[in-house]
Design a protein that fits this description.
about 270 residues; alpha/beta; Rossmann fold; 6-stranded mixed beta sheet; 4-stranded antiparallel beta sheet; 10 strands; disordered C terminus; binds adenosine-5'-triphosphate; binds magnesium ion
């Protein structure tokens, strides 16, 4: 979805492969991604789901520019990705806050590092309000619940106005109720800013509740098994018959992907 205030960029992954040295014998290479191609529209929210170890985090790290592909190209808008950039935010399952800094300090840290705090000072306040943490400005990370800490991590990434937000199981450590509330918060941020989002999740309901398209990946080396276009109207009803039908369809596909991995191990 692209809003009037859209900040998002399109993403293009073109025949990307990624090999790693095998832990037992560095001479051997393990193929993690195999000529994977994917396009994401500006302002779109997509989910990546697939068996554990198939290469989802690897793909996000390549998009973040934290690692480079063995072959192929990754583009954000008309820019080839060659390294990290504040325009591509990354949020992990662990919020990774600096324990010695206040909540405000954590949100400001990236701005300080880039030497732009002075002109962005007012925005810090706005972002704390946006994620509902105004009252905790002077608190420290150990004062926060898991959900609140994850909201700080989101604010810290969003304050750079990223064109793309890469979310690697960001809600994975939260209890079921907090998780559902946070899903709504992420959707609200997505709708208000129009940031392109790529969400890795193991939670099929989360993928259906949140995303425009769901990319089902095969076991390693990851290829795309299927892309499901999710046209359910928003806000989505988690127990509607259409929601449950889509869930059944995805579970069937994942079961197939799991079987393929068992066969390739045999
Ligand atoms: N730096 C690395 N060196 C060697 N092998 C690696 C490295 N990073 C990832 N791998 C291997 O690449 C494969 C894919 O890992 P990745 O973390 O991308 O999987 P994933 O799909 O995110 O799994 P999960 O769902 O469990 O988080 C794994 O077999 C992993 O061991
Ligand atoms: Mg992972």
């Amino acid at each position: 979805m692209v809003t009037a205030s859209s900040e998002g960029s399109s993403i293009r992954v073109v025949e990307v492969s990624k090999d790693f040295p095998a832990p037992v014998d560095p001479e051997l290479r393990i193929s993690t991604l195999d000529q994977l191609s994917l396009e994401v529209a500006a302002g779109e929210l997509i989910s990546l789901v697939g068996p554990s170890g198939c290469g989802k985090s690897t793909l996000l790290r390549l998009l973040a520019g934290l690692d480079s592909a063995t072959a192929g190209e990754l583009w954000v808008g008309d820019e080839l990705i060659t390294g990290p950039s504040a325009e591509r935010g990354l949020v992990f399952q662990d919020p990774n806050l600096f324990p010695w800094l206040t909540i405000r300090g954590n949100i400001e840290a990236g701005l300080v590092a880039r030497g732009v705090l002075r002109e962005k000072k007012k925005e810090v306040q706005e972002f704390m309000k946006l994620v509902g943490l105004e009252a905790f400005e002077h608190a420290f990370p150990h004062h926060l619940s898991g959900g609140m800490a994850q909201r700080v991590a989101l604010a810290r990434a969003l304050i750079n106005h990223p064109k793309v937000l890469l979310l690697d199981e960001p809600l994975g450590a939260l209890d079921a109720f907090t998780r559902m509330r946070m899903q709504d918060e992420v959707l609200r941020l997505w709708e208000s800013r129009g940031t392109t989002m790529v969400l890795v999740t193991h939670d099929i309901d989360e993928a259906i509740y949140m995303s425009d398209r769901i990319v089902i990946m095969t076991a390693r080396p990851a290829r795309i098994e299927r892309i499901i276009v999710n046209e359910l109207p928003r806000p989505r009803q988690r127990s509607s018959p259409e929601f449950l039908r889509l869930r059944g369809q995805i579970l069937d596909l994942l079961h197939f992907a799991g079987q393929a991995s068992a066969e390739s191990l045999a």
